[in-house]
Amino acid sequence: MSRESLREPTYLGEDYMVDQDLLKGPLSNRRCTDCLFLIIFIGFIGLMAYICSESVKNGDPSQLITPVDYDGKLCGLQGKEGYNYLYYILQATQ
Q: Residue 39's CB: how many other CB atoms inside 10 A?
């Protein structure tokens, strides 16, 4: 089969050869090949769930999403209780 025959509108695939393993379908010879990776991945997910639960239980998750001012203090926390919003004044440099 030449590549030119594929471009012809009347080509019906008469000379096309199909692999014998694919005649029954691709599901005839399958097996799990990533069992070790699956075990490691499930362990990783479990470890991350444990780390997240401990950090929420013993820490302050609001520090992850609270903006920080120019002094490094958290807005709405750390002596800035009345100021919940972050506002920067940037000077233009020339």
A: 10
